[in-house]
Amino acid sequence: MMGPGLSYEDTPPFSAPVRFFLTAPLFGIAAGLTLVFGGEILVSRWTPGALAIAHLFAAGFMLQVMLGALLQVMPVVAGASMPAPLLIAGVTHVAMTLGTAGLAFGLGTGTPGVLLAGAASLVGGLAFFLSAAALGLRRGSKTGSNTRTPRDLRMAFAGLVVTAAFGLALALVLGSGVALPVPLPTAVNLHAGWGWMGWAAVLLAATSWVVVPMFQITAAYPQRFTLLWAPAVTGTLVLWTIAEFFALDGARIAAIIALGLLGAGYAAITLYLQAHSRRSKPDTPFLAFRQAMYAALAGVLVLVISLWSDADYWPILAGVLILHGGFGGTITAMLYKILPFLAWLHLTQAGLKAPNMKKLLPDTPIRRQLHVRTASLASLCVAVFVPMLAPLAGLVLAVEFGWLFANLLRVVRARRDAARSAGPRPGSHASA
Amino acid sequence: MSARTVDARGLEPPEPFERAMEGLMSMTRGEEMLLILDRMPHPLLRILDRDGYRHAEAYRDDGAVEIRITHS
Question: pTM for the complete prediction?
Answer without folding.
Answer: 0.89
